[in-house]
Structure formats: C-alpha cells, structure tokens
Amino acid sequence: MLPYNVFVQELENGQIEVSAVDPVASMLAVKNQSQTEVAKEVKEQLQRIIYST
Questions:
Q1: Does the model's pTM come out above 0.85?
Q2: Does pLDDT of 52 surpass 90?
C-alpha cells in the first residue's frame, strides 16, 4: 500500500479546495524504483483529476 493523501476542504468563502501530497516526494525515502514508477503514474492521474475541476 502506497501513501497517497488527498485533502478536500471547504474554504471560508464557500469554495472547495482539493489538494494532494506529491506521491513521488513521499516515495523518495523508500528508494524502490518500481514503487517510484507507480508513484509517478499516480501523480499524473492526481494532477489530471485535481486540475480538471
């Protein structure tokens, strides 16, 4: 299981903010190339989802 955290919060002005921890940065300490590749794919998918809203 890889640590990919996504946060959703309502701001004071009523807008919704979605953010995520960079999965590639989270995996730097692990030093496992196969997991780093998965983290890169997850990062791309998270960016598409977050920036499309």
A1: no
A2: no
